[in-house]
Amino acid sequence: MKKKVSVIVGSLRNKSVARKIAKNILKMFPENYDVNIVEIRDLPLYDCDYDDPNETEKVLPAIYTSFRNEIKSSDAVFFVTAENNRLVPASIKNAIDICSKPNNDVAFKGKPVGIVSHSIGKLGGFSANKSLQLALSYFNPQYVGQPEAFIGNSHSLFDGDSEEINNEGTKAFLQDYVNRFVELVNKQ
User: Keywords, A to Z (predicted)?
Assistant: First the structure.
């Protein structure tokens, strides 16, 4: 039986570095894994009224339900994110908030989680990675252990319009991270 992994990309731009990294990571999983990017770009901002049965003026958006169901049906979730102003991008935080409700049916609860962060600076999105871990801590996730995946100087990983990572060391590092993530998922 195939394992299903939902990949959430923190940047909404089609040609973002985060999306390019994610596309490289998709190819690093074993064949018995169904790994796909789950888009978050069209998710409306979370509003608690959507989940309040006593609130009749605001109807739960269908995209919330489909997104929640996609995450719930996944065996694990893998994030690839840039760092925005030393935090995780708002689009990812919004997706997390949407999946945190309703309280009795939390989509991310207990799932294995992988996080790859990047930045154009040398710290590789350290703050985004840590803020994402903090936001996800509510769901009691299982994380890949050390070393964590912070990719610095990420703008230099791609030549021109290429979507292939040009640095063999970075490819090997990401492959190792994916391998350890797969080991974690396989224990489920």
Answer: Oxidoreductase
CB 44 within 8 A of CB 78: no
Q: Cβ(129)–Cβ(115) under 8 Å?
A: yes
pLDDT of 38-58, one tens digit each? 999 999 999 999 988 888 888
pTM (predicted TM-score): 0.94
Rounded distance between C-alpha atoms, residue 107 and residue 114, angstroms? 16
**Cα–Cα distance measured from residue 13 to residue 10, given in angstroms and rounded to the nearest whole number:** 9
Q: How far apart are CA 188 and CA 3, in angstroms?
A: 10
Q: CA-CA distances (angstroms) from residue 35 to 39, 59, 121, 131?
A: 13, 31, 29, 24
Hey, what amino acid is at 104? N
Domains and CATH numbers, the chain: 3-186 (3.40.50.360)
